Batch of 4 targets.
Target 1
Amino acid sequence: MRGTPFFIGLCSLLSSQFSHAARPNDLNFTAEEVEKYGCGEKCQANLREGMKTDREIFGGYPFDHDFYAIASNFSDAKPGDVLKFEPFNVSTLSIPPDLTAYRIQYVSTGMDGENVPATAFITLPYMTYPGQKPRLMAFAHGTIGVTSSCAPSSSYNFYDYYTWIMLAIAGYAVVGTDYTGLGNNYTAHKYVNCVLNSEDTYWSVIAARRAFPNTFTKRWAAMGHSQGGGAVWGLSENPRVTGSESGEYIGGVALAPSARVFDLSLESAKYHELSGEAASAKFMPLIAKGIQAVNPPSTKIDFLSDAAEKRSELIDKLQLCLQGSGSVTEDLPLAGVKSPTAFQNSDQLKDFQKKYGAAQGKKAFRDLLVLQGMADETVNYNATKIAYRAACEAGNSVRLSLYPGLDHRPVLTASVREWMPWLDERFRGVASQQKCVMHTWKPLLGE
Ligand SMILES: *[C@@H]1O[C@H](CO)[C@@H](O)[C@H](O)[C@H]1NC(C)=O
Ligand SMILES: *[C@@H]1O[C@H](CO)[C@@H](O)[C@H](O)[C@H]1NC(C)=O
Ligand SMILES: *[C@@H]1O[C@H](CO)[C@@H](O)[C@H](O)[C@H]1NC(C)=O
Ligand SMILES: *[C@@H]1O[C@H](CO)[C@@H](O)[C@H](O)[C@H]1NC(C)=O
Ligand SMILES: *[C@@H]1O[C@H](CO)[C@@H](O)[C@H](O)[C@H]1NC(C)=O
């Protein structure tokens, strides 16, 4: 399926504006259109490449506008309510073929506690042993973009890169939220927002239980990567997990988490001497959107150059996802960052981290296991260490395991022998002895 266009007579579902595109992000641009945003030849080449890579995320899977549109009964619903519930035809997806898969639209909560529609996928394992119920895992995905066309549930494999599929293969039932603003466009996506992304994750669990009553274990846990690692860290500090409405939350696994984006930007810039080559520089237009999403939309971003801000308008215009968004500022000096001291002087980044970051001195309610590669070009491990120390100072129980030589994605599979048994123990009810501890592993072939 990967990379193969997959069009199934969907024309009637598509809005007229994109009548010739299978997905809202399958757009083409002319030089004239993008030059208005200051995107010259080099920028156009990067953009073309970025959009191509974005398309590969979805594998040509059609975007079902009907499903992502707000449900007619949204206005009377409560958080955790299921608004839409549909099975997938698994043979149209590229996922382990024994699974059954569904998608739901449900109600989450927004920045002022208001109800917001969100969508999620759910997978069920083929079986459990007699007398057992499938264990329920909430999966929190990593960066895929900020525009509504970038929903993981609209991808041919639900945006797997050895992430949620590891849980499914281990026999867990998985609910994977898209987060609000991805898929449904009722509100702007709250990018790298540990507080609000944890809300979406929390309510996805309640919605999954309402969609499948009495199906799952009472115990549930969460696992997330990158942005989703931040969501899981936020979940451990979200007082909702102490209640019984969701069942019994038993802890979370945060892989390469973006818990504190001010520190992250700063540490990464320090390491790369703001060369603009840092992979994380690619995330700055997205982080700017994350800040705008909790401020008036026209808020001027204090760490982006004017040129970068202008070009960022292309993200919405062309419905860019992860790679496309990163490509618009790639050829600018310092990749569009205003100056070498722009991050450390950014009040917006500081405020955002304080308000919506994790490991800000809040009390955590459950254990957290954090796994981090030491050659991570996206989430700098020194920033994760800062978050770890802040959490421990607040009296929380965090285990941080460092993996020398590993970049952002390899840590997912490299650490499976550590986090899978950790989850298994929590589900079996083994009392946690975890205290704050930091450990550095040794790779087989040395480092
Ligand atoms: C964009 O261009 C590609 C090939 O260059 C083409 O296959 C596709 O249909 C075009 N998309 C739209 C929306 O015109
Ligand atoms: C939001 O989505 C609806 C239906 O899915 C669409 O009709 C509408 O144009 C979209 N609004 C924006 C601002 O993109
Ligand atoms: C909303 O409507 C759908 C479709 O009719 C239904 O399945 C769902 O249960 C309703 N949800 C609520 C909360 O009323
Ligand atoms: C599921 O998709 C496959 C592949 O496109 C198709 O052959 C099959 O008829 C579909 N099944 C149903 C029940 O729609
Ligand atoms: C992490 O911090 C140490 C100590 O300050 C420094 O030597 C190292 O270069 C930093 N590494 C990265 C990837 O930022």
Target 2
Amino acid sequence: MSVTPTKPDGSIVALKTKKRPTAKDTRADSGDPRPVEHIRARFPSGGRGRPWQDVPEDDWLDWQWQQRNRVTSLEMLEKVIDLTDEERDAFEASHAQFHMGITPYYASLMDPEDPNCPIRLQSVPQKGELLVLPTDLEDPLAEERDMPVPGITHRYPDRVLFYITHNCPVYCRHCTRKRKVSDPTSAAAKKQIEEGLAYIESHPEIRDIVISGGDPLSLSDERLDYILGRLRAIPHVEIFRLGTRNLVTLPQRVTDDFVAMLRKHHPVFVNTHFNHPKELTEEAFEACRKLADAGCVLGNQMVLLKGVNDDPKVVKELNHKLLMARVRPYYIYQCDLSQGISHFRTPVEKGLEIIEALRGHTSGLAVPHYVVDAPGGGGKIPLLPEYVVRKEGKKLILRNYENKEFVYEEP
Ligand SMILES: *Cc1c(COP(=O)(O)O)cnc(C)c1O
Ligand code: SF4
């Protein structure tokens, strides 16, 4: 059992008893061969924002220091970037509903002078959040309705979503689960996790567990080890996936101890959430490298966001960088109907245009599935540009990525 002091939701209070990681631990060579320099050179360090120039390296690389020093107030944010009046107003008006929280690492990726910086749009409150359209929904994916026990969404026959915390290092402004995330009263209690485990144990049809939140990596290694160990002991559980944005917002969390813990529980899949090539820094690359070297299979789930990545060139660059970091682009999500994110929504046409611009033009490995998570709990529905031009009897007229037509004779 865990000896780490935990909050009721199982997240750690502080690891005072443990030696904190030093620069050497987090940068240390685990003995795995390093990617060549010209690949690494594509991933420049995220650097340090204005307020953190003199922070000792050991603090900066310590994920708990990063957690403790998150930017949560307007006063602190003013020190990081040149705020616009609009951002200031949006902060004041949105604060009570959905807190702001940004790790110093992620805040350092923001362009202090550009209000349209893609990192800034994802983490600093915007005016658009205050607008709730009549078509917006509080629980757009009906995740609550499909909950047989609190904390488990069982929608598909053979797999479940398992929420184990509601904390995240950075509160993404486009978050689908705004209603829960950053709300301390919705924290998944230990009892709830036990009930979720019991549900999975008693349902032999469940072979795949999507471990989600919040961000599961908000829990301590000890707590995660316990949960993964319990899941691994269930004979019908074949795989699980950790859905985490820590690789993006707090890559320091991926310590050598953490990956050593994961190694015990293979096969482990890690699905992360990079939205823009700027997020693929040296630090993020290192976190991906450690996980991949530890044998995890990495996938990325991008959310299509207006002003951030609604541009085929940006997505292509993102996906090429992901592949170099050994992360396979898995999904592009159409922005859902959560409240207060309408300013991020693009037409579905945009998603189709992106897929069209990728397929054939670059590695198939760089082409994810574009999906709409159907409002009302219909699940993920894939959308593709139309490649069937017409049918003439048994002749199927198809077009390729260059819009050239080809005939396939059906049997
Ligand atoms: C996304 C999701 C899954 C996993 O779906 P895959 O297509 O297998 O990645 C499972 N359950 C729920 C409720 C989901 O939303
Ligand atoms: S990491 Fe995921 S759950 Fe957490 S705020 Fe961002 S989108 Fe929401």
Target 3
Amino acid sequence: MEAFRYMNGKLRCENADIGKAAAAVGTPFYIYSRRAFADNFRRLDKALAGSRHIICYACKANSNLSVFRLFARLGAGADIVSGGELYKALKAGVDPGKIVFAGVGKTEDEIRFALSSRILMFNVESVPELNLINDIAGKMRRKAAVAVRVNFGFDPHTHGYINTSRGSKFGIDMSMARGVFAYAKVLRNIDIAGLHSHIGSQITQTGPFVRNLRMALSLAESLKELGIHLRFINLGGGLGIAYREKESPVSVSSVGNIFRKLLKNSRRYTLILEPGRFLSANAGALVTKVLYAKESFGKKFVIVDAGMTDLIRPSLYGAYHRILPLTTVRSPLATVVSVVGPVCETGDFFALDRKMPVPGQGDLLAVMDAGAYGFEMSSNYNSRPRPAQVLVSGSRFSVIRKRETRADLVRGE
Ligand SMILES: *Cc1c(COP(=O)(O)O)cnc(C)c1O
């Protein structure tokens, strides 16, 4: 069942009246459905049943401790990209033996922290990084498990900013991958555990995932000639969701079925996936209040109290988010309007020239599918305190992160 739906004309998150939450915590705020997070995880886990696998939640999508803890309890590991995320993962109770560490710019301090926390492995993105991990592991008298992150360079057909293939800074160019594996083999403190290939984000077709696994398997098999026997194949994240009314999310059951077939004769591999958006995006919404309406040069603007500082995806990627009224109107008159925030930037918008029922002053709106890359990418630009985060379970809701105060804005200055 959808986590967000109307009952008697009011938008609910599970069984909680979002309007009531708004009255309690003020606007803007994020609201999440506990059940939706869990359903997403279970759906993916079930789709992968039959292939040995670990789901490492890409916590950069939403690393609130309560959300993170929820996934950890369901059995998720974590895909982290910084020492800060490692710190949060451990605090949230994620099993270190299920943590993988990606990112092109790991620092010495972060590598040491990860080794001493006994994470599952590093996803290595360059030779100098590999050398540094080898050196640090040597000094710590440890063996560092790594996966070489390979960039197969094919186009996953997604937005340029979230396309991590050819021409991006990520991974090791496919033409050099074998050489890097061979090099890693002679490093004394490196255990070559696997191969990693994340191809991009918000991919809604099954094709790119299948192609990624095929290429990974073929490389993994060819490494046997070098005496390298991988244990893990990590295909990264990127499972896409439906942001628009008429879109469909990626079919994880199809992806799971094809993976199972492809892996039938390669049972030694444990599959790792690193979904972020798929697990968290549709579980959350950003709730905001209409402050004013105005017209300029014939264009209608609805000005709300949330802005790009709270949810930057529309500004950054031109991303589409559905915008729903918390209370439905009887006979909505759809007009072309732009929904914009209070931040002093022209790029501060949630919708541009969208045909929708025009909300009135004081009305509440929900910007949907904001559970991933929403709060996580928020900022204090324009000295705006970050919004509160609320988690719903059934008809109850609790604040899982307090709204920042003005005092928070000057902390440390
Ligand atoms: C961002 C990222 C993910 C998660 O991407 P989603 O599209 O949110 O699933 C996984 N792995 C790596 C390496 C990433 O950079």
Target 4
Amino acid sequence: MFKKSIKAYSEACEVIPGGVDSPVRAFKGVGGTPPFIKKGKGAYLYDIDGNRYLDFVQSWGPLIFGHCDKDIEKAVVKTAKLGLSFGAPTTLETKLAQEIVEMYDNIDKVRFVSSGTEATMSAIRLARGVTNKNDIVKFEGCYHGHSDSLLVQAGSGMATFGSPSSPGVPADLTKHTLLCEYNNIEQLKKCFEESSDIACIIIEPIAGNMGLVPADVEFLEACRELCDKHGALLIFDEVMSGFRASLKGASGILDIKADIITFGKVIGAGMPVGAFASRNEIMNQLSPDGKIYQAGTLSGNPVAMAAGLVSLRKLKKNPEIYEELSKKAKRLINGLKKVADKNGIAFQINSRGSMFGFFFCEKEPKNFKDVGTCNFERFATFHNEMLKRGFYFACSQYEAGFVSTKISNKMIDDCIKAADIVMKNLK
Ligand SMILES: *Cc1c(COP(=O)(O)O)cnc(C)c1O
């Protein structure tokens, strides 16, 4: 079934570390060879062996309209024909910025970059520059891209100075990153007692990088209060949840307002785009108006802007899409839960808009440690068996899943039927 992919993978491993350009793609969490993809169409992925999969990964979030959406495709081709990049301003950037600013009452200006990593990295520089402070608070299990200060893991102790989670990251840098447990208000308070040099808290308000683990409202309120009390800025990393969890992202579901919001994924519709946004008084401190430096040769790339613009305009024009997607995500996870219960499999589910997550766990995980107690063997077997049956789920229990507008109720029901058979045989 995977003959050509196995060969392609071994060839890739000769010239690309681990055969992939982003580690999760290598299927290390579930074993086996990742299918090499030939094309996508609508709700489906097709690999080079000719297998077809119902896609619940959607390039890890960007493809809310599925693969090869006609409107997006048309805009991309039309724009590409006018030139791929100019290194000069285009009106497309202004238009996409307008679309984003219009959706939020707490942001006035947006700056575009080329990835989520760049967006969060720049947001942190901005927060540090504006507050004139050095420390940042990050939560275990939240992922904000792979920049140095954000690749931290817990050291010893409680509210602790993070230590590097990767070789190549200097401890001198990560000592400025304070690591706390997600949804743990006491630890967060302690953090602010330990340091008077905190520039910002960065958080995924709906964490999607340890499976789907939404923050408790009281926890986010505590983040807001502590930032206000100590003159720190609150950064919502909405690279995943932006225009996904709702038309206004997590911010649209919650009453809590962040100072800086980062975007990526959906705002580029599959093209490399990231962005960070805030109020005038903060954004005006960025270069060239202000002193805080940030730049990018391909930032605001016209083809990427065109893709994002069509996508966001379609979403805004048809806000009922979010209700439909939300219903579909619920249909999927409730269906999976039902067959899990029927087969005596401990199973936890969650969804926010078109984001969904499930865990092979006795109780709902509230933080990274909880997720670590889930049954990973079961997850791997489930994943492999579903893949063989044509259902492409994220290859790690630490990742969220997504539904697109191209996924129908019938497709979801077929998936649940397949899951029933798979779960019957899960040990
Ligand atoms: C994907 C993601 C990032 C990193 O974005 P890249 O485009 O992969 O660099 C940052 N934050 C969150 C919340 C993400 O989901």
